[in-house]
Structure formats: C-alpha cells, structure tokens
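A quick aside before the break. I want you to see a complete sequence-to-structure record at least once, exactly as it would be stored in a machine-readable document. Don't worry about memorizing anything.
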Amino acid sequence: MSLPTILTDSNPGAIRPARTAASCVLLFLALLSTVGCSKKMAVIAPPAPDVSIVGSDSDRLQESLFKGDQAVLSNQDIDRILTARITLSDRHRVAVLHLNSRNTYYQEIADLEGQNSEQFLKALASTPQFTQVRFIPTLLIPDKRTAPYLREAAARFQADLLLIYATRVRNFQRDRLLGTDEVHAEAAVESVLLDVRTGIVIHSAHSSEGIAARKVPGDLNFSQTVSKAQAEATGKALLKIATAVGEFASHSDK
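That is the input. The structure line, written in tokens, reads:
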C-alpha cells in the first residue's frame, strides 16, 4: 500500500495547501485568545458608589439609619407625626396636672398655693377656646407618669387636651447680724400641652419669676418667710404660663 502523495517528496505542490490550512488555524486560535483576554480585561468591577449619610437637597434621607429605632416607632409613624397638622377647633376641654406638688406644714402656705391653683385655672378658663378647665382627680393620676399613661388618664376624664406643668424653686438667703434677714426666691414653671387624641405635644412653655421678702412679725420663723416667697413667685410664674397657653390656643383655632 502506497503512502498519500501529500506526504511524499515526489509531490511538493500538494504540501503547500496543507501548510497554508494549518497556518490559518493557528492564526485563528491566536486571534481568539487575544479577543478572550481583551474581554477579561474589560470586565472590571466598577467602583462602589459614594453613600453619604448627609443627603443632598434633592435626595435627603427620610428614614432612620438605626434598625433599633423602629422597635419604638416605625419610619412611617415618625413621618406621619412630623407631617401632622393639628388645630384646636374641636378641642375645648382641658385637664390640668401638676407633676410635683409639695406638702406644706403651714396653713398660710397651703392657702397661698390653693389660691395659686384657683387663679391659674381661672386664667386658663378665660381663653374663649376652652369651655372646661379642671384638675385631674388624684385617683386618676397613674403611678407611672409617662406620656402614654397620662394620656389614658386624660381620656378617661374626657379631656381633649392635657396641660402638664412642673415647678421648681431656688432660694438665695442673706443673713444679717443686725436687722431682718432677707430671702430672694426664684420660681420656674415648665409646661407642655398634650393633644389627647394624637398623643402629640402641641405646645410648650417656660416662665420664671423672682420675689424678695423679709421676715415680718407675723411669721413664725424664717422658714415660713421663705415658703411664702416661694409660693408668691410660683403664682406669678403660673399666670405667665396661662397667658402663653391661652395665646397659643387663640391663634391655633384660626
């Protein structure tokens, strides 16, 4: 059996086409490898986008970045609270609560504090928006004086609004070797007005008043003089709070 002519030296013209075909195959493989490498080099991961905590004017953050915050209030609830608009057109009944009322050992001081409370309620009731202003009965005051429990107590009292206030007094005493001792009492009152239906604080106020007093012959001791000055300063500060709340209610009703 004879060998094919393409392998013999007797037919050199037939070898050229075979070599040419082999060269084309090698050239094709080389090009294919080059294209594959270029594609691999082109597939490069793009840089990570810059995520900034402070958003731009057109893309501001609207949600909390801390997951634990939503265990108390969801982002949707926060948005509803911040965008809510509350008017007092249908809020007429006000419940009042003094958070830190104190006990006194002097009848005169107790009478002064009672007068302060009565004048405070009268000043609030003079606001045309309010048709009913009353202190919450002691039996309805919860042990836990937090906003949810206080709101529940006001709802049981059928109050539309709950005015919560706290008082604080400071004394500056001046002792004299000769003459009558003096005291300067400074009272500060802080209040918040809570909308019972929504649980939102719609108003807050702060006032302070100072009174200087000296011991008079009718005072049993200097301690009574100090207590009288404290009560007088507190009464004046409370009237400022009543005025601020009344002005707010009058403007919010429009």
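Two observations worth writing down. DSSP finds five helices and five strands in the chain. The two ends are 117 Å apart (CA to CA). We'll return to this after the break.
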